[in-house]
Specification:
alpha+beta, Fumarylacetoacetate hydrolase, domain 2, 6-stranded mixed beta sheet, 5-stranded mixed beta sheet, 6 helices, 18 strands, about 15% helix, globular, Fumarylacetoacetase_C_sf, metal ion binding, acetylpyruvate hydrolase activity, metal-binding
Length: about 230
């Protein structure tokens, strides 16, 4: 096939124990999926249906990267999350079948321009740019299910310059991975290469130029990035 311009590069994530890379199609994110985080953001954590937003695939950043600090914000926040990578897809997936879609798991950061998001919300505008800006999605290597199983519990944490800012457990999710995938598949057809970020525990805080940010998830992996001064 011929193209008018060169097609974009495929966004990829390394896979633990493999030389082959995982190609990323879309990145879906679950909002307010931990009760304590919902409260710190001023919302009722009752078990309402999950809601989703997305990030472009080319916002992915690999472990160990040194990043320019985004100039469009004075309030950059970290949100550490379990990331789900899909090898299969489908529509209207049943909860009991949803984990069959999963290739593996990683840990990542949903980086957020909190001031940009807040202003957009105040004006009733979309807050896409607060979540989907360049380099807004650091993600660790993906650990295949054959190594990890399907984690339902485990410590998930974020540190800044070695100081713990977020600390929670996967069992604190309001909606499980399987439930999130089932809900999302009612709105869009999930396909191989899709990623799902599953929400963040309480403790989101400001990241400054010069900070080193590290996210860990027990049994899954870790991700470290540094923001330039």
């Amino acid at each position: 096939m011929q193209y008018i311009i060169d097609p974009p590069e495929v966004a990829v994530v390394p896979v633990v124990g493999e030389t082959a890379m995982f190609p990323v199609r879309r990145i879906w994110c679950v909002g307010r999926n931990y009760a304590d985080h919902a409260r710190e953001m001023g919302h009722d954590p009752d078990r309402e249906p999950p809601f989703f937003f997305s990030k472009p695939a080319n916002t992915i950043v690999r472990d160990g990267s040194e990043l320019p600090f985004p100039v469009q914000t004075n309030d950059l926040h970290h949100e550490v999350e379990l990331v789900v990578a899909l090898a299969k897809g489908g529509s209207n997936i049943l909860v009991q079948d949803a984990l069959d879609l999963v290739f593996g798991y990683a840990v990542g950061f949903d980086m957020t321009l909190r001031d940009v998001q807040g202003e957009a919300k105040k004006q009733g505008r979309p807050w896409t740019l607060s979540k989907g800006f360049d380099r807004s999605c650091p993600i660790s290597s993906i650990a295949p299910v054959s190594r990890t199983g399907h984690p339902a519990q485990g410590r998930i944490e974020a540190t800044i310059d070695g100081k713990t800012q977020q600390s929670g457990d996967l069992d604190q999710m309001i909606w499980s991975v399987a439930e999130c995938l089932a809900h999302l598949s009612k709105a869009v057809k999930l396909l191989p290469g899709d990623l799902l970020m599953t929400g963040t525990p309480a403790g989101v805080s400001r990241v400054l130029p010069g900070n080193t940010l590290r996210g860990t998830c027990a049994g899954i992996g870790e991700i470290t990035v540094t923001y330039r001064t």
